[in-house]
Design brief:
328 residues, mainly beta, six-stranded mixed beta sheet, four-stranded antiparallel beta sheet, 3 helices, 6% helix
Length: 328
């Protein structure tokens, strides 16, 4: 399946399910946006010790409006997921370990006015398969609704109380995901929840659920084939881009981010455009486009290597006006 066909299928899968993204006055000519990049000294917050005191150059750098450090990367925090609400950003990720198993989900709560990390959650857990607690691992998707803060990981979906982050047990509910519903990333809008499953060389798997089905009393399993009283099943399934790392609703439907530590792409209905190296989750918010990058995480930096800030706000129109790219 071609890249364009994959994106078209994903958009067809979710017609009528786009997140409101504000007025869009159309594209701007490259280099004439309202933002013009930031320098190292302009990045807000406390810089980490990892990496050099200079920023990496990349095609979308001139569209950056603001950027933020997350000093917890010095303690092996790897950003993966993002939710922005007003002056607060929730950045989800995991604490790096050489193997997948012992990588607990972590969450940074960032004050966007100052860049300060107000709270940092190192681990959360709950009884999932029996009395013994299971902790969240490698969280890759983050969304906030009126019900709370959602965290998706490969085999489980968590609902947390944002007010209790860093102040006790934040877990409200937890669901198990079967192998066909892989929680690599997550998007929620207009009563629908879409999981994106990462696959490196094949189209990523998409599974869409009704939010009300997931929240129904007694439901604790999200499965492709089920129908029992504890099961919720998808209303649609489809394919996303191979290597998808971030997923969000935006103009025209679903958008995907893919990246390496030195290159990034953002892909929507009109094809891919250059984006941020290491870009993981992504979010449209009015005239802005937010993302988190794992490129500046300590495990992925060589000594003295120029860095990418962990959290970035970009000029949406400038990014989308860039010439299409052929791949990282």
């Amino acid at each position: 399946m071609s890249r364009g066909a994959v994106v078209a299928l994903a958009l067809l899968l979710l017609v009528g399910c786009t997140r409101p993204s504000g007025d869009d006055p159309g594209p701007v000519a490259p280099g004439t946006g309202r933002c013009h990049g930031v320098g190292y000294a302009d990045v807000r917050g406390t810089p980490p010790q990892a990496g050099a005191a200079e920023l990496v150059g990349y095609p979308a750098a001139d569209a950056v409006c603001a950027a933020y450090w997350l000093p917890q990367v010095d303690d092996l925090f790897v950003p993966q997921a993002l939710e922005v609400r007003g002056t607060t950003a929730y950045v989800g990720g995991y604490r790096w370990a050489p193997t997948y198993g012992p990588r607990p989900c972590q969450i940074a709560v960032v004050d966007l006015r100052t860049g300060r990390v107000r709270r940092f959650v190192e681990r959360f857990e709950a009884p999932v398969y029996g009395p013994a607690p299971t902790y969240c691992r490698h969280g890759g998707g983050l969304e906030r609704t009126r019900e709370g803060l959602w965290v998706a990981e490969t085999e489980r979906l968590w609902l947390l109380d944002p007010a209790r982050l860093g102040k006790g047990d934040p877990v409200l509910r937890v669901w198990r995901l079967d192998k066909a519903v892989r929680g690599s990333t997550l998007a929620i809008a207009r009563g629908r929840m879409v999981f994106g499953g990462y696959r490196s060389h094949r189209p990523g798997r998409l599974a869409e659920f009704r939010l009300r089905d997931v929240l129904a009393g007694g439901v604790d399993d999200l499965v492709v084939h089920g129908g029992g009283p504890t099961d919720a099943t998808p209303v649609r399934r489809g394919a996303g881009r191979a290597g998808l790392q971030g997923l969000t609703f935006g103009p025209g439907g679903l958008w995907f981010s893919t990246s390496t530590t030195r290159c990034g792409e953002l892909e929507g209905p009109d094809g891919p455009v250059p984006f941020v190296p290491g870009a993981e989750d992504v979010e449209f918010a009015g005239p802005d486009l937010w993302t988190v990058s794992e490129s500046g995480a300590k495990p992925y930096l060589d000594p003295g290597e120029a860095v990418v800030p962990m959290l970035l706000r970009l000029d949406r129109r400038a990014v989308l006006a860039a010439p299409s790219t052929s791949g990282c």
